[in-house]
Specification:
The complex is a heterodimer of chains A (about 50) and B (about 325). Chain A contains no helices and 5 strands. In chain A, a hairpin with a 6-residue loop joins β3 and β4. With about 325 residues, chain B is α+β, with helices and mostly antiparallel strands. In chain B, strands 18-23-19-20-21-22 form a 6-stranded antiparallel beta sheet. A 5-stranded antiparallel beta sheet of chain B has the order 11-10-9-6-12, with no helix packed on it. Chain B has a 3-stranded mixed beta sheet with strand order 1-2-3, covered by helices on one side. The radius of gyration of chain B is 23 Å and the shape is elongated. The chains are: A mainly beta (about 50), B alpha+beta (about 325). Chains A and B meet through β4 of A and α5 and β19 of B.
C-alpha cells in the first residue's frame, strides 16, 4: 500500500494495469500523483514541467 | 417561473464554469466553450459550443442531467472527433498524451483548415491560449497540421504526433486540405519498429549532428534548440521517418521494456532528474562503451556522455527498445 505524498492518505488504486508515468489522483486531497515505479509501486507529486 | 428558470440556468452555468476551470488546470489546452439556452417556460435546456475532447462532453452532459430535471439537448462539437471514417490514411494510429487518447487527424474532418510552417521558419506551439509555456515547435519539414479552432489572434492546432496546442495564426501558412498525408512510420506500445542497419546508422548520424552545438530549449524541437524529448523526435523523424509523441511521459509508453544493461544503439534510456520530479530521455549511441546522447538541462545543450556520467544527474533509469535491426 502506498500513501499520498501530499496528505499521507492510503492510495487504494489497482496497481496491475498501471504504467510508469501514469497519473493517479489521491481520493482524499485530489492532488495529482505520478507513478514512478510499478515494482515496487511508488508515486511522486506530479509536476507539469519535464526534462 | 422566472425565478425557477434563473435558478436552473445559474446551476448549469456554475457547473460549466467549474468543469472549464478543472480542465484548464489539468490540461491547459483544453477548450470548453459552452452556451446555454433555456426556453421561456424553463422546460427545455439546450447546450451548444465547442469542447476539445469527447470525455469533456460526456462529463458535461452527465453533470447537467444530474442537476436539471428538464429535457436537455445539445449541439456540442468535439474538436478532436473524427468524422471521416474513409480517411485515406487509416493506418495512422492514435497517440497517448496528457489529454488522453488522441485520434489522428482525419482528412476531411469537419472541413477545417490545414496549415504548415513557412519556409525557413519555425512555429512555436504553446500549451495555453495565453501563448505561454512552449509545448513544441513545427518545422518546415514537418507534416501539415490541422486547425481545430481559429480565432482572430489564436489558432488551436493538432500536429502529426497528436500534440494539441496554440499558435499565432500569422506564423502559419494556410494550405488546402491535403489529399493524403506523408507516409510515416509510427511506434506502437509493446512493439519495436524494424529498421535496416543503414537506417540505424542514419539515426545515429542524425543524433551526432546535434552534439555540442544545439542548445537546450524547453519545449524546443528545432535545429536551433531542443529539449530531451524534442531531440528524440527529430532524430527518429529525420533518421527513420518515425514519429514519436512529443512529451517524455508519452514516449515512455512505446517500445518494449529493456534493462539498462541490455540497451542497444538506438534504444532509449528514461530517467528521473535527481531532486526534481521530471522525466528525461536519452538515446544509446553506437560508439564503443555505453554512450548516450541527450539534451542536457544542466549543461544547456545536447551532449554525449557515458552512462556513468549520466547517472550522476539522473536516477530511476529504465530502458525501452524501440528498434529491431533486420538484416536484408
Amino acid at each position: 500500500m502506498t500513501s499520498c505524498v501530499e496528505c499521507g492518505h492510503n492510495l487504494s488504486v489497482p496497481q496491475e494495469n498501471l504504467y510508469v508515468g501514469e497519473l493517479v489522483q489521491c481520493a482524499n486531497c485530489g492532488v495529482d500523483l505520478e507513478v514512478i515505479s510499478t515494482n515496487p509501486f511508488h508515486v511522486e507529486l506530479f509536476e507539469e514541467e519535464e526534462k | 417561473m422566472n425565478s425557477i428558470r434563473e435558478a436552473v440556468l445559474e446551476t448549469v452555468i456554475e457547473l460549466i464554469g467549474s468543469l472549464r476551470k478543472s480542465y484548464q488546470e489539468r490540461y491547459g489546452t483544453a477548450i470548453f466553450e459552452i452556451q446555454t439556452e433555456l426556453d421561456q417556460t424553463g422546460r427545455h435546456l439546450h447546450l451548444s459550443g465547442d469542447v476539445l475532447l469527447e470525455k469533456q462532453k460526456t462529463e458535461l452532459m452527465d453533470g447537467v442531467k444530474r442537476i436539471v430535471s428538464v429535457p436537455v439537448t445539445e449541439a456540442i462539437t468535439v474538436l478532436t472527433e473524427k468524422t471521416n471514417p474513409e480517411d485515406p490514411n487509416p493506418s495512422r494510429p492514435g497517440f497517448w498524451n496528457r489529454l488522453g487518447w488522441i485520434q489522428p487527424r482525419w482528412i476531411g474532418n469537419r472541413g477545417g483548415a490545414w496549415g504548415r510552417a513557412k519556409s525557413g521558419e519555425v512555429i512555436n506551439v504553446f500549451r495555453t491560449s495565453a501563448l505561454k509555456n512552449l509545448s513544441t515547435q513545427v518545422n518546415p519539414f514537418d507534416d501539415p497540421f490541422s486547425v481545430l479552432k481559429e480565432m482572430d489572434s489564436l489558432c488551436l492546432i493538432q500536429l502529426e504526433d497528436g500534440t494539441i496546442g496554440w499558435i499565432r495564426p500569422d506564423e502559419m501558412e494556410k494550405i488546402p486540405e491535403p489529399l493524403q498525408l506523408p507516409d510515416r512510420n509510427f511506434l506502437k506500445s509493446g512493439e519495436t519498429v524494424p529498421v535496416s542497419p543503414e537506417t540505424l546508422e542514419g539515426i545515429m548520424a542524425e543524433a551526432k549532428t546535434f552534439v555540442g552545438k544545439t542548445p537546450y530549449l524547453f519545449g524546443g524541437r528545432a535545429p536551433e534548440g531542443v529539449d530531451c524529448s524534442g531531440l528524440i523526435q527529430l532524430i527518429y523523424l529525420q533518421g527513420a521517418n518515425l514519429i514519436f509523441p512529443k512529451h517524455t511521459r508519452d514516449q515512455m509508453r512505446y517500445g518494449i521494456d529493456r534493462s539498462v544493461s541490455d540497451l542497444e544503439p538506438g534504444d532509449l534510456l528514461f530517467a528521473r532528474v535527481k531532486e526534481k520530479n521530471v522525466w528525461h530521455v536519452a538515446v544509446r549511441t553506437d560508439d564503443p562503451g555505453f554512450g548516450l546522447i541527450h539534451a542536457s538541462l544542466q549543461q544547456k545543450k545536447v551532449i554525449q556522455e557515458s552512462l556513468e556520467d549520466f547517472s550522476k544527474s539522473y536516477h530511476r533509469l529504465f530502458g525501452k527498445k524501440v528498434l529491431t535491426v533486420t538484416q536484408p
